[in-house]
Amino acid sequence: MLMQVGIQVLEAIAVLEGCMLAKQQGINDVVIECDSKETIFYLQSSIENGSWEAHPTLQKIMNSAEFFNLHRWYCGS
Where is the RNase H type-1 domain (predicted)? Predict the structure, then answer.
């Protein structure tokens, strides 16, 4: 059975995958770019204001971002 998920959830998953890959490769200095203005907004301000579906993934992103020396959130669109 396929689950229907929103764009914000998919964008957040993509950001999380990138963070996990950078961490696995030992890359500490990163710029995180995403096409979703909403995802970047919630990561920069307050993830509690994001969609409830994306909240667990946004929290994982914030937890993994603590690993990095320098991280900036950037919206590429």
Answer: 8-66
